[in-house]
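Course assignment 3, question 2. Fill in each field.
Student: A.L.
Task: Predict the tertiary structure for the chain below.
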Amino acid sequence: MAQGDFNRKVQQFMNGRRGPDDLANLCVWVAVILVVIDIFVHTGWLSWISMALVVYAAWRMCSKNVYARMNENDAFLKALGPVRPWLQNPNHAAHELRTYKHAKCPSCGQKVRVPRGKGKLRVTCPKCHEKFEVKS
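Answer field:
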């Protein structure tokens, strides 16, 4: 079978499926970490858990119920909350923390990013256009 034929068949199989998302990627990474730990600790149950995580990740990637997998992934990302940028790109998150201060609009609660070290700033909320002062 030619390489192009195999790629076409894989594309046909994945048509209508979501593929890997953040939750599936996390399951695979946790499984890899558990396998590495199991190499040194020699417990049988860690390898079974890692295998179950890989099977769950593969099931998520091949599921045709895209809407349900999308809702599960969104709930997972929402549960991560403010930790998410630190997990995805720690260097950028650290740079963002050093360079900018995040303030909340007192009227609508929208988060506004202002540069650090500029003293007292008068900020206009991009959502409700309320003006308020922030110490950067």
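Instructor remarks: The radius of gyration is 22 Å. The chain has six helices and four strands.
Grade: pending
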